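tokens incoming
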């Protein structure tokens, strides 16, 4: 129970990786605010946390709306008394070829994956600054490192942006003892990839040295490490969880 007494917000906690992360951090003892645009999904997650004996709250948020994000941080502080950990897992994906991406779609993807994630970091920072402690863990993607195997240019750009943003925030906020890191998943079995064509998935899988897609639980393990005391001196870094697709 290494996170006993800590409070965490997990965005995107209504599904996939966010749900697994919420469960994992709750198992480690953290109280978890499970935030998602899909409130029903977040409520499902808190039921699972409560079954494990954990403390959880479901919260509906659109991370691309700054006032809603500020409300989310206030709700965590009001209900849990603090905010120690922020995990940004909310995200959306499109695979549109670059030359066909409409401006609205570009803005929507960047608005959630990059601007929305920034709003969450920004809103959490005053609480963490005051406490002189904080862990921010951003779920980026292997796509932001390699260009990706099957995704749109806007998605790839948003994830590259998250990796760069993480390093900048790590530099600015180190003076307040806030660490900021990314976990970069490879292709992962979640709702996001459920509709990918079978032949694309097979082609990708053939190039994964460890021979399978990432599971949401694999990501949760890396996040739990970065949230723990063991990772206290790691900041501006990335943990690549991809079964060996990218080794550098
Ligand atoms: N699945 C993959 O292969 C893969 C690979 C690399 C990175 N990622 C990233 O991992 C993160 C989690 O994705 P996942 O695979 O678990 O997908 P998912 O679709 O299962 O979960 C994403 C969650 O984000 C929520 N969400 C979407 N827009 C939101 C908004 N505006 N405000 C709040 N919540 C919102 C959704 O409702 C959903 O519950 C995303 O950032 C994704 O880009 C996924």
């Amino acid at each position: 129970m290494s996170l006993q007494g800590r409070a965490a917000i997990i965005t995107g906690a209504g599904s996939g990786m966010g749900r697994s992360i919420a469960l994992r951090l709750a198992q480690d003892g953290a109280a978890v605010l499970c935030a998602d645009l899909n409130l029903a999904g977040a409520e499902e997650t808190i039921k699972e946390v409560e079954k494990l004996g954990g403390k959880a709250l479901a919260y509906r948020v659109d991370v691309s709306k700054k006032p809603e994000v500020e409300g989310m941080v206030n709700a965590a502080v009001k209900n849990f008394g603090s905010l120690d950990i922020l995990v940004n897992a909310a995200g959306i994906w499109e695979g549109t070829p670059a030359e066909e991406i409409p401006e609205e779609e570009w803005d929507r993807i960047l608005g959630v994956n990059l601007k929305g994630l920034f709003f969450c970091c920004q809103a959490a920072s005053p609480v963490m600054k005051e406490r002189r402690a904080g862990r921010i863990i951003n779920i980026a993607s292997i796509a932001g490192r390699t260009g990706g195997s099957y995704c749109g240019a806007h998605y790839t750009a948003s994830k590259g942006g998250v990796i760069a943003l993480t390093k900048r925030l790590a530099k600015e906020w180190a003076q307040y003892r806030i660490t900021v890191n990314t976990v970069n998943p490879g292709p992962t079995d979640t709702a996001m990839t459920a509709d990918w064509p079978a032949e694309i998935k097979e082609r990708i899988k053939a190039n994964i040295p460890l021979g399978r897609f990432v599971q949401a639980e694999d990501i949760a393990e890396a996040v739990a490490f970065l949230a723990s005391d063991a990772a206290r001196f790691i900041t501006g870094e990335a943990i690549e969880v991809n079964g060996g697709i990218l080794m550098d």
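note: The chain has a mean pLDDT of 98.
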